Amino acid sequence: MARKTDRVERTDRDKTAKAKTTDDNRRGGKLSLNQALNGEGGRPRSMAAMKRKQERTRQKAMGQSARPEKQFREVRLPETIVVQELANRMTERAADVVKSLMKMGMMVTANQPIDADTAELVIEEFGHKVLRVSDSDVEQVITTADDRDEDMVTRPPIITIMGHVDHGKTSLLDAIRKASVVSGEAGGITQHIGAYQVTTDSGAVLSFLDTPGHAAFTSMRARGAQVTDIVVLVVAADDAVMPQTIEAINHAKAAGVPMIVAINKIDKHSADPQKVRTDLLQHEVVVEAMSGDVQDVEVSAKTGLGLDNLLEAIALQAEFLELKANPKRAAQGAVIEAQLDVGRGPVATVLVQHGTLRRGDIFVVGEQWGKVRALINDKGDRVEEAGPSVPVEVLGLNGTPEAGDVLNVVETEAQAREIAEFRAQQTKDKRAAAGASTTLEQMMAKAKADVNVSELAVVLKADVQGSAEAIVQALEKVGNDEVRVRVLHYGVGAITESDIGLAEASGAPVIGFNVRANAPARNAANQKGVEIRYYSIIYNLLDDIKAAASGMLSNEIRENFIGYATIKEVFRVTGVGNVAGCLVTEGVARRSAGVRLLRDNVVIHEGTLKTLKRFKDEVKDVQSGQECGMAFENYDDIRPGDVIEIFEREEVERSL
């Protein structure tokens, strides 16, 4: 046992000695204070230090400086910049930049922003050049280079079909496409812009835009006119020129595009094409049949009569225009329509105007950006690219853009995100500036006016951006000085729980236009008692809102004069007061009616009758030509010759 203990102790001593030796060896190279003062020992130099010394010696022998020359740069300086970003652009250490700012009396950190004037002083101190730029310069990455003539190729014309509601625009396009578009539309009217491409029998490719005809869709028709090359104005031969026809003419004139008049429904017995041509003269549209320069074609969407002539007229007009575009440049296009699809996310219908849009392209559109995940043509097929004048659905956006926004392809995702953020901030600043510009007096006057105005609040969700926009514009026109409609929130996509929550807080109904509420939203609406109204036709929606707003109007009080009586004599009756002996000269005197006392045609009293007697009996009414006795309630100043006016009041319901 003793032998085993001695063996363990020897082992422990050996381990301690070995550890001490290792520690001494490790610390042997370190220089202590005493060694440094006495000049003893010293740490041996590392291999890297020896190499650095040899390199310096070699450079010195060759006449080179040990340090590389400092490079001076041109630094792009926006209106505000973070210290760290400024250091990066100058390729200087952030600590050196902070030190420089502290010398100027600014105690800042590397993550704090500084203004452009201060940053300019720092840049000049470090010896660099300053290039002042604006925040809006981020949009300069969007290519706006002039196209070379050798790159230009002929492109298909973009034709917009416009006109009054129910004049057969979609039916005409339906006949051209040999498809059935109109059958799937609610109420037989187009609710949003459709974009289609048609190949004629002669091989010509035409891009068509079908715009709505209802009065509410003014802005959508304007967008159609802005992106088009040729406007086909459809006028029904049995209905002639109507309000939206005039509006379409004005849009076409404002856009400066040529017009072709298609006189539709000539197969009807009541058709009168000549009346259409005559009516158009009032709006400065002179057709060729009346020695003008506007082509007119008689067609029938139902029988197909005249369609060949219409396509020939379009082809002729397109030939005169000599439409060309460069398919090799970065794509640019206009958003015709945008919607939020449940399965596919935000989807935009884009009409490519310049360049070629390809799958995988990074783009910015309005305040949104994205990468083209898929392109779908008007027939529902996936395509790899879309050239000039080709309408496609674009998938891959990070949010729903506004209809009418311009799509531009950029090189990198960072550029797209930066441009979108800049535009969003600009919009936010404009709204803030508009709110700040309101004076206190204006705010007080508005608050005072709002007290007397009843508001019908609504929450609106629609299937596409254009329809939502059109409905909001139409609802804002509903109302008068006493009642108005206020849209609390509008958007595209299904009705969600957040919409129900907003409606409950404001006591507003939720309106779904061609959309439905999801299951959680329906349950929330049932629990909270929020009404959800579904519509597919804009007429019905506007009529119901007008009826609801009309119900908030106070009833109008109307007075109906039923008789006049002249006072012949005044009698004093004990316990009753002055009683007028009257002759009913016109109409009838009725005790339940209101009365006014006129003296020299001036009203001196208005009230009710205390008594109406015929001889000694109390009666309900007295006819014209008969005598009676009248006494006023709480009024005795009556004289012979005064006239009593008898009237009845009735409440009449008002409507907008």
Please explain how this structure is put together.
By secondary structure, the protein is of the alpha+beta class. The chain has five domains: 74-133, no CATH class; 151-324, Rossmann fold; 332-428, Elongation Factor Tu (Ef-tu), domain 3 (Beta Barrel), CATH 2.40.30; 441-551, Rossmann fold (3-Layer(aba) Sandwich), CATH 3.40.50; 556-652, Elongation Factor Tu (Ef-tu), domain 3. The strands form eight sheets. The chain has a six-stranded mixed beta sheet, sandwiched between helices. It has a six-stranded antiparallel barrel with strand order 13-14-20-17-16-21. A hairpin with a 2-residue loop joins strand 28 (594-599) and strand 29 (602-614). Helix 4 (83-90) packs across helix 5, helix 8 packs parallel to helix 9 and helix 15 (497-506) packs parallel to helix 16. Mean pLDDT is 79; it is low at 179-192.
Supply the key terms.
656 residues; single chain; Elongation Factor Tu (Ef-tu), domain 3; six-stranded antiparallel β-barrel; 32% helix; alpha+beta; Rossmann fold
How big is the Rg?
Answer: 43 Å
CATH class category name of the largest domain: Alpha Beta
CATH architecture of the largest domain: 3-Layer(aba) Sandwich
- Structure summary, number of beta strands: 33
Assigned CATH superfamily of the largest domain: P-loop containing nucleotide triphosphate hydrolases
How much helix, percentage-wise, in residues? 25-40%
Shape: flat
**Unreliable stretches, pLDDT < 50, 5 or more residues?**
179-192
